Amino acid sequence: KYSITPSLTLDLTYNTDFAQVEPDKLQLNLDRFALFFPEKRPFFLENAGQFGVGDDNEVELFFSRRIGISDGGSVIPVEGGARLSGKVGERSNLGLLLMNTEAIDGIAPANRFTVARFSQELPNRSSIGAIYVGRDGDGSFLTPENDDYNRSYAVDGTWGIGDYLLLKGWAAKSDTPGLNGDDNAYSVSADYDSSTWSNSLSYTEVGEDFNPEVGFLSRTNYRKARVLLLRRVRPKNLWGLLEMRPHISYAGHWKSDGFHESGFLHIDNHWEFRSGTELHTGMNFTKDGVIDAFEIVDGVTVQPGTYDHAEGQIVYFTNRSKPFSFRLRTTVGGKFGGDRVSLQPSIMYRIGETFRSELELIYNEFDLPVPNGDFTANLARLRLSYSFTPSVQLQALVQYNDNADTIGTNIRFSWLRNANSGLYLVYNEVDERFAGAPPTGRELIVKFSHILTC
């Protein structure tokens, strides 16, 4: 790490390893769209906001998990790279990232990644910027070297009007060999946020051949409209309430031919009490337009069709600043022509800043009008953390997926000298013995890292 100026930093990394990073939370994909897993690796989290363009969790021009992690979650060795990020002057932001990864037979070619980002801050929360994202492969996996590449380009901007209104937008294009259709995407939005109102309106289009391979797309070939109206009300003396937030929102997705792929109308009120307890009471009206049959779980196939349903939703949690706290999210209603009950309780307990624990269950019960349509899909997660000192910690994460009949265990001991550097002892295990198989993926890792600062 070398500070070129107090606000502009050059980071160099070689034979980069992220063994000390906590594994991803297990997720259940009970739909037909891509799941989003957030970045956890410290090198990529630092100054990550410098490279952000697009709509969070839906369309992201640069998604750092594409570097060093395959689509299936396998680790791809990172040879090394460099990052230059920070400010040039008072209002100019610069980000440049160069990374190389090794090839893995049958999974990924060796790749060189290039990301260049520049943005200029303007008065009153306004800005304008551009980004370039490129991948160049060695051609060893599927295509000749000359065709093993991908490019994405985008411009973006924000315009603050007064104290409360913010207009935002971005426009992007990708370049992928063999894709010659509509490879453009854009989004415009308006957000009004004051002490009493939070309102937003947005529209997004993504072409059928828009393909940012080093980015993230939750789905392709769609038009999306979204609107939110939220009011904040603070009663003077009513049932111990601090604030009520009645709101209504709608998000709809249509394919380019006009097919209504999904719709979500949400009507809710958040009741926040002075005690720190909060209750959400809502109704959802959903539409799912299924074009192609898909397996929601092994052996259960959802057939093409349009499914309209209603569901009730309740969220309740106690004061999270207390030593003991509880959270419950429940949804009861229809799904894919049948019924679904979803429960997500979690219990948190802590002792000062020394010990923290959380036990979480995600329970889904389905009754669909298809063969084997009566099934459950569940996850359980236990997280423990004990701090011997502010720099010495022992952490554990145990997760269970009942569909795969698999337990994943991660135990990490860290003795840090400063942020993200020090001694790490890590134990990982994936246990499929419940499914009749021996334990797999068992590993013990010892790592020491030191950051050279100039």
How is the topology of this model organized?
Blueprint: E1 2-5, E2 8-16, H1 42-45, E3 54-55, E4 59-60, E5 78-88, E6 92-101, E7 111-122, E8 126-137, E9 149-161, E10 165-175, E11 184-193, E12 197-206, E13 216-217, E14 222-231, E15 241-254, E16 260-273, E17 278-290, E18 294-297, E19 300-302, E20 305-317, E21 324-335, E22 338-351, E23 355-367, E24 374-389, E25 392-401, E26 406-418, E27 421-431, E28 440-449
Antiparallel strand pairs: 1-2, 2-5, 3-4, 4-13, 5-6, 6-7, 7-8, 8-9, 9-10, 10-11, 11-12, 12-14, 14-15, 15-16, 16-17, 17-20, 18-19, 20-21, 21-22, 22-23, 23-24, 24-25, 25-26, 26-27, 27-28
How many separate helices?
1
* Rg, alpha carbons: 24 Å
Distance between the termini: 6 Å
**Can you give the mean pLDDT?**
94
Number of strands: 28
Percent range of helical residues:
under 10%
Low-confidence stretches: none
Structural class of the helices, strands and pairings? mainly beta
- The portion of residues forming beta strands comes to over 45%
Shape: globular
What profile does the largest beta sheet have?
A: 23 strands, antiparallel
Secondary-structure element series = EEHEEEEEEEEEEEEEEEEEEEEEEEEEE
